[in-house]
Amino acid sequence: MYKETVLPRILEQVVNCKDEIAQGYLMDCIIQVFPDEYHLQTLETLLGACPLLQPSVDIKMVLARLMERLSNYAALSTDVLPEFFQVEAFAKLNSAIGKVIEAQEDMPIAGVVTLYSSLLTFTLHVHPDRLDYVDQILGACVKKLSGKGKLKDSIATKQTVVLLSAPLEKYKDIDTALKLSNYPHVMEHLDDTTSKEMANVLVQTILKNKTCISTDEKVEALFELMKGLIRDLDENLHDEFDAEDFKEEQNSVSRLIQMLHNDDPEEMLKIICTVKKHIVTGGPKRLPFTVPPLIFNSLKLVRRLQNQDENAPEEETSAIPKKIFQILNQIIEALSSVPVPELALRLYLECAEAANDSDLEPVAYEFFTQAYILYEEEISDSKAQVTAIQLIIGTLQRMHIFGVENRDTLTHKATGYSAKLLKKPDQCKAVYSCSHLFWVDDQDSIKDGERVLLCLKRALRIANAAQQMSNATRGSSGSVLLFIEILNKYLYFYEKGVTQITVASIQSLIELITTEMQSENKTADPAADALLASTLRYIQFQKDKGGAVGEKYESIKS
């Protein structure tokens, strides 16, 4: 009855009234009052009336409301979906929208995008598995936007964002969006600020759903969509630069880079190359955020290759790490444009350690050389120098790959840098740290007691000079903290069996510290008092142990 009598009669009245306000209102009433299944079965009749309405009637709103009702109906249950397939709802709605847009040549672009956005929402509810339909809608939208350049209308921009967000919300999987060939073409019409926001939505979707992007083609497509976040699209945007927002965006990009993964080393290498290509053009503000995660993701691959079957041919196992290290060198070099020498030095040392574990001596030596060049030429701040020296010493101490000549060269340089630090206390700490470079437990080839003793004696001389300077400038002898720290090093090496460290040398150092502590010129230092008390307690504890250790410590009078 509704199909054959009621609806045709009502539509006849609506078309014949010729009043644009009444027509819009009555069409809305028909859509809102009658049941969803009625609309579905009479879709052709209802859509056929739209072109007959007055030209000034807002048909896009009529169609948008109809599609919204049908979308909600489809979302209620999958049981109703066969009804949609039976009446070919998508084809009819798509055709009707095409005719309306064609008929109304002056329809604003916001109206066009709104219609396609409603159709897309409908399609995602009714045909979630038909990506070709989704891409077809995006393609039709691109066709209408072509030649229009960047969208300047805020409503059109907002609707375009809704259109692009719909597939992400539905599939919760960026992989699906990357399969839509027209998706990036729609994004091209967004202004730079909105494009950046949309890119951020993409990144957050990946992070939220922990999506793994595993091929270089997908990474290429994704980074092309994300270009608003990984490079400056517009030079003028620096005027509106917000440091906090920028930092948050770049941290999200960094997390995304860490999530890229493929079990196949060759494929993973391609992904690394693709990411490198995109991030090196990011500019000085972005590189400090994006370079470290790519370095560490690459080093993860190197470590993975180390743990693989050791029976594989050596050429096969070392070819990929060598390629990776070449790429890493280029990536860290890109940081020189920023410049952030402290960060670059840390990354060079990380790579050197990874090359050491991969048994690639020339590569490890080259990374150390680069780190030393940075230290000499770029790092001038005294605090940064102290940190850099400690990092260099710590990394070099863990290296086992170097031959005698290479190790001597690097060690000599490190001890030289330590002795040239600006402040005497910093010099002293760096020099006594260098003693560890000449005695490594698990390496028999690096056990040089003479040079350990030499370092510790040199540190004592520097500590003495520091005290004399304090006496000359402040009238007090200053803290004995440095002497106590050196005493701890003496005890460490004595326990390790360095024969050059004798009981007599430890005893004289304890006496020196005790004398200084009782001196009238001494500056009060609770930290020094606490450290000395702990050190003496430790000596007593070792004595009480008995056995070989107790015997060793017995002759030390504390």
Automatic annotation (TrEMBL):
Gene3D superfamilies the UniProt entry points to: Vacuolar protein sorting-associated protein 35, helical subcomplex Vps35-C
Give the protein family.
Answer: Belongs to the VPS35 family.
Q: Establish whether keyword Cell division is in the entry.
A: no
Organism of this sequence? Solanum stoloniferum
According to its UniProt entry, one GO biological process term is: protein transport
Q: How does it sit in the membrane?
A: Peripheral membrane protein
For this UniProt record, give its keywords in alphabetical order, as a comma-separated list: Cytoplasm, Endosome, Golgi apparatus, Membrane, Protein transport, Transport
Q: What is this protein called?
A: Vacuolar protein sorting-associated protein 35
Quick check: keyword Membrane in the entry? Answer: yes
Q: Mind telling me which InterPro entries this protein's record contains?
A: Vps35, Vps35_C
Q: Which domain of life is it from?
A: Eukaryota
Q: What lineage does the source organism belong to?
A: Eukaryota, Viridiplantae, Streptophyta, Embryophyta, Tracheophyta
Ranges in coiled-coil conformation: none
Q: Where in the cell is it found?
A: Cytoplasm; Endosome membrane; Golgi apparatus, trans-Golgi network membrane; Prevacuolar compartment membrane
- The leader peptide range reads none
Gene Ontology cellular-component terms for this entry are: endosome membrane; Golgi apparatus
